[in-house]
Amino acid sequence: MVVCCYSRQQAEQVKARLADWLAPRGLAFNEDKTRIVDLEEGFDFLGFNLRRYRHGHQPAKLLITPSPGAVRRIRSRLATELRRLRGSNAMAVIARLNPIIRGWAAYYRGVVSSKVFDALDNYMWWLTYRWACHSHPTKPKKWITRRYFGRFNKFRNDQWVFGARGRIINDRGDVAFLVKFAWTAIVRHQLVAGGASPDDPRLADYWATRRRKVKPPLDGYNLSLLAKQEGRCPLCGDHLLIPDQPPQSPHEWERWWLNIVRRAIAADYLTHHGQGGTPEKNRTRLVHTSCHRSLQASNHRKPVPATPSGLA
Description:
The chain has helices at 8-22, 68-84, 90-107, 114-135, 141-148, 204-213, 220-228, 250-264, 289-298; strands at residues 43-45, 48-53, 61-66, 149-150, 161-168, 175-177, 265-268, 285-288. By secondary structure, the chain is α+β, with helices and mostly antiparallel strands.
């Protein structure tokens, strides 16, 4: 728990009152994990760093960023995963790292993370380039960059995207590629109404409405598709993504991607499923993977497996 006060004296008083409230319930502060610090000194909490910055005569500004420890941990994990994947192909690298990158970026997208995301993308480029050089020790650098890097994401003007060239993942001929941290849009946290507690049963509707308003960590293209479809599958009418409880850590976001998004959603590029008539114009829509496969089976077409990202 974090309590912000105007002075150290006020913080001591709040701590004393909380201790008096906890004592009858058989609880007490863990003194090793409890401390009072000045906001200008800053502190880490749940993977975030909270610190107040002053710039000349301008008012002080409180900034919340990914903590240095959290950044070190994700860098270490990415490096470890790439070492384990030596000898594997590019598709294995993409399948393993995409959920990790998406999960970490989704957890930190609500704070000041743009510079951290850019730095991690540069680090990922260096890791994947080293992995490619290790996989092809006799090949020149130009051959390696042409083989593994290119403008694989057609919605991004970025020629340094790591991809599995030759591995087509859908009917459009798209190539599997490694996502980047910076592609996750920053979405500021919406303040909670004063006194609103998720443990209050009288406020269940408030928290349910608040969760529905939170945009899932998708790119702008897929978010626009979800908005046009009002978040529902056009084939069955049910909601595509309903997080009953938003993930509370990078690992939970990673599992959310693996267990919900990738398995729940597929892109359907056929627009006309009625009897007779002429389709007006081809458009993309998001449908449940199960509905997509059922539709293909009914049309006597070979099912196309969902992409690693599960999205258009």
